[in-house]
Amino acid sequence: MKSDVVYRASPAALSDVRGIGIVQAEASDEVGYDDGIVVTNTLVMDVGSARVEEAVDRSASLLQRRGWVIVGKKHPWMVAMESARRRAHLTLSSFTADRLARHQGILEALAIKSATTESAVIIEVNVYPGEQ
After folding, report:
1. What is the mean pLDDT of the chain?
2. Which pLDDT band holds residue 131 (cuts at 50, 70, 90)?
3. What span, in angstroms and rounded, lies between the C-alpha atoms of 75 and 3?
4. Is the pTM of this model over 0.85?
5. Distance between CA 93 and CA 69 in Å, rounded?
6. 67-110 pLDDT, tens digit each
């Protein structure tokens, strides 16, 4: 029988992320895993960058000040980070509507707000099963 374990980022981890800028829209999704459900919180944020090219680096820098560590950067537009203190992981990526294809609600919210996304960053936060 499948357990009802839910793996989700702590309120403190999400507070770290929300604290680096202005949340323009957010959503969460749940994916079944071996022993439960993994919840990923997806946020679109304005971190005060002048250009999209700067948004990911600025976000990473702001999160590093909050104790997050860069664990991977394969491309300039995407960075992976983790926080041992918060027991959470995240990815930062420069904004493109394609990256939010599974989050139509976020795209609709951005359109309703007429949010400026030229320098926005997409942040996906979760925990890995067994690390909660």
Report:
1. 88
2. low
3. 37
4. yes
5. 16
6. 999 999 878 889 999 999 999 999 999 988 888 888 888 888 88
Which distant-in-sequence residues (6+ apart) come within 8 Å of 1 by Cβ? Answer: none
R_g over Cα of the chain: 15
Strand, coil or helix: 113: helix
Listed in sequence order, the residues at least 6 apart from 20 whose beta carbon sits closer than 8 Å to its beta carbon are 45, 47, 59, 62, 63, 66
- The DSSP result for 59-102, as a single string, is HHHHHHTTT-EEEEEEETTEEEEEETTTTEEEEEEE--GGGGTT
Position 132 scores a pLDDT of 52
- Show the tokens assigned to 13: 């981890």
Q: Which two tokens stand for residue 34?
A: 């071996």
